[in-house]
Prior knowledge:
Blueprint: H1 11-36, E1 44-47, E2 52-58, E3 62-69, H2 74-87, H3 89-93, E4 122-125, E5 132-135, E6 140-150, E7 153-163, E8 170-175, E9 180-185, E10 189-195, H4 200-209, E11 212-215, H5 220-232, H6 252-265, E12 290-294, H7 299-307, E13 313-320, E14 323-330, E15 339-344, H8 345-354, E16 358-362, H9 366-371, H10 374-384, H11 412-425, H12 427-442, H13 449-459, H14 463-467, H15 485-495, H16 511-515, H17 528-533, E17 540-543
Parallel strand pairs: 3-10
Antiparallel strand pairs: 1-2, 2-3, 4-11, 5-6, 6-7, 7-10, 8-9, 8-11, 12-13, 12-16, 13-14, 14-15, 16-17
Helix pairs in contact: 1-5, 1-11, 4-13, 10-15, 11-12, 12-13
Amino acid sequence: QRRVHGGQLSSQEMAKCLALLLVVVLLCHCGASLAENLIANGFKVSETEFGTVRFHKSDAQTSRTVVFPSRHDENEMLFSHLQNLLGGFSSRTGLVQSAEPPGDGSCDNSIYKGTEFRFVPDFKGSPKPGEHVEWVAPCFQHTSAAFSISGTTARLEFTLSGKKSLTCQELYLFASPQQFHPEIFVLPGKHVIEWKDLTADEVTDLSHHGIRIFRFCDQTWATIVEVVKTAKMFLGGLGLGKFPIFGSRVPKYMEQANKNFLREAVGWDMVERPSPVVKLQESDVHPGDFVAILRLDGIDPLIMWGSGSHIGHTAVVMRVDNILSVCESQDGWYWPTHGIQCTPWAKWVEQAAAADFHVAILPLKPELRARFDNDKAEAQYKSVAGLPYGYHNFLFGWIDTPRDNYPAHLVAETALAVFALIDRLAPKVTERFINQALNFRLGTKGLNMAQIYAEMDRQDISPADLIAKVEDDSWVYSDGPSMVCSVFAASIYKAAGILGDIEINATEFTPRDVYTLNIFDTDNNRPAQCELADPQQPWCQILGKYRLTLPGYSTLAPYSHMNEHCPSKAPLYIRPDGC
């Protein structure tokens, strides 16, 4: 077996990526409220949390902000100031609290009405020099922004009117690949923000793409509530021990948080089963069987929200060295081994139960079971065994279109702005999650996020169009071929002859894309214990408190280049023919 030990992104680093996003939100809210304290007669200077120096002045009609590049190390400033921010957080948040309840803000009237992930800001537009954009916000009835560039100075005129209450406020984030500037607006009128001493690349980017304007959906204290509620989905089952949070089990509060999220976001109200365990003999399981898996751990429900799947993890049964095994690409912090691996059936079921997996076994149709070439499947597994989990294309099998794969009010501009900021804080994370994949799409190598933006300008391609480019199976990343769980499963079926001679990129397959293939048995020929536990299901669910449902199960005939241009918008997740 070929194993790669260097450069693997650990589960802790994936958690760090999520934690960094939460920190960014706190920095925006806390740092901007601190800046409001500096408004006085004349300009006042302050260091911002985003590596810039801010000068601010206001009078009865107009406020003006000037932002210069900082001469300090950005990462050092961010992390040293974070401690001060959190230390004085309780006293400063009193400046910006609102009498309005959480969730009163509107983010483009999103169908999704839950509070989880609502802290992610809403993209309002990106006016280019000479352009003007307008919108309606919960606090100010009329908001407009006009942008201009003169030499190495960019200027944004932000005008607000029609304030709806004395206590309301609006928090915005203004961003480019190199600049991140938060502002809280309490007073109506014209507010001017200037960015000085811009580099040539910054001027080029702002000229082509404009200044990105994001509005946080709710006010400060409501956003913090949203961060906490989102964190509850992820904070638990973080290890292999027996402690409530750092053990392998999903705590009750985490289970309930994820269950509530799936009801609000995906429209799935999960139903409890009479028995959480159904025992199968090895003789009831066959090479080629698909293993559909759900864990209520934040990650799986997030995958489901984006892709329309009703599971978040997948595996395939095959014989490896003549041992019946479950094979998968796996990197869970609750799992004893990482990377692409095979585990003997009985041992795998034991580990799955300890991790609170929901597991269903989807059998191939009898004629396809007979066709499943285990030798070729085993050879495909051994060619990638030990490689790390495929974080490089984690996002790209799901995002197939410029606009129609993002949940709620998230858009490509928001995603890339967040990654551009994380790129400055934790470049190894963005290198693994997005930078290498975007370099492949641009035909470049080794560019960081700011350089990627500059190259997009040179090639005249938008962020949304770049992300939506097809992920190619032939791309080999710095640590080898990149395979998430569903990509690995699709590659096994491709190698074993189940999909015939069609041309596909397995790297474009999500869990939903695999279980909707019409290769699985629907005739309900199941062991008696499976019938008793779940009478209406055509598969056998062997683990899980809640009954798995798989909309579209075994309905889609395979065809060449399938799943390369498919939308996935909640809550209906309509999939056009031939996409």
